[in-house]
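Here is one such tokenized protein:
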Amino acid sequence: MTARRSVLIVGESLAGTTAARHLRALGHTGPLTIIGAEEHGAYSRPPLSKAVLKDPAADHNLGLALDGLDAEAIRSPAVTADTRGRTVTTADGRQVDYDALIVATGADARRLAAPGQRGELVLRTLDDARLLRARMADAGSAIVLGAGFLGMEVASACAARGIPVTVVDTDQPLERILGGHLSAVITARAAEYGIRFVQATGFATLTGDPVRGVALPDGTELTADLVVTCAGEVPCVDWLAGTGLADRLGVGIDHACATSVPGVFAAGDVTYLRGDGTLPDRRAPFWSNAVTQGRTAAASVLGLPSPGPPTDDYFWTEVAGLTLKIVGRLPLLGAATTVQGSVTDGRALLTWGHADGTSTVVAYGLRKPVGALRALAAPSSPPAP
């Protein structure tokens, strides 16, 4: 692709802004347009549950500025795409042409409310976080549906404010991600922190209109002043209807972040990595992948080699006052291969070895530099043939 051809990025997200910056860094001097759906512009989402719920001052430290990019920003959601005509139409009626398109529209929070049922709270956007923070100020009790990273972070923010909080899920907290051993330790720590856990035998449903509680499959009903759904995400692909780019998993990409349509690339939470016959299709909606895929998509648009794999297995969370940093494949299965320190004491370095010579490393309550964790996770010797 020549440097003067136009690039359109749909999604003023971490993946989208990373792609824009990398395009310019790689020498693209042609027209660059970014379509965003939120009036706030681009901002970082991980601090929403880790900082914004706790401190209003954090609102002002989230921005992903477009300064120096010489890019046109259109803040009106994309509503349709014509990949043959190479145009995207926005909600305010603008039709934007492109030579190359990067899809980076991210995902929306998965909602559990019945049609017409009001008052469901989720946490995906800055507005969501501000509303939830305001509601927490007056709440005497809370229920969180979902015991993954986000659910446990929201529950931790409630407990830190002294709000009695109950987390509901079909599996123990973080068990699907971190395995039974770490899950048990984290569950015990969360209980000491003021977080109660209820394990449901199936899907819970929201009750009340507006929502005031949840009904469990066994007939138990829990009520609270605050009910927050943290049940995963849904890729933002409605605007791609009829293009053949998206399915229920999102937009499929290869290792170059190319889609099934020539001239269209994708990055971030809207994507899944297509299987290759040996590995299945894989969704990995984490901020580290958004950054990696943004860079890869930018290079691919310009016909340059990929800077590396389109995934970066780095994760971090804060639960019940404890920081966890993880480098390597998830989920974790079985016991750790090595343990330095003490999980019980809240400071440990744990390693799970894999057959290919790589490892997954968890810094449990340790403020270990990410670079050091990556070095520990790297292959110590060539994998066996």
User: Anything to note?
Assistant: The helical segments are 14-25, 46-52, 126-136, 149-160, 175-193, 287-301, 370-377. The mean pLDDT is 93.
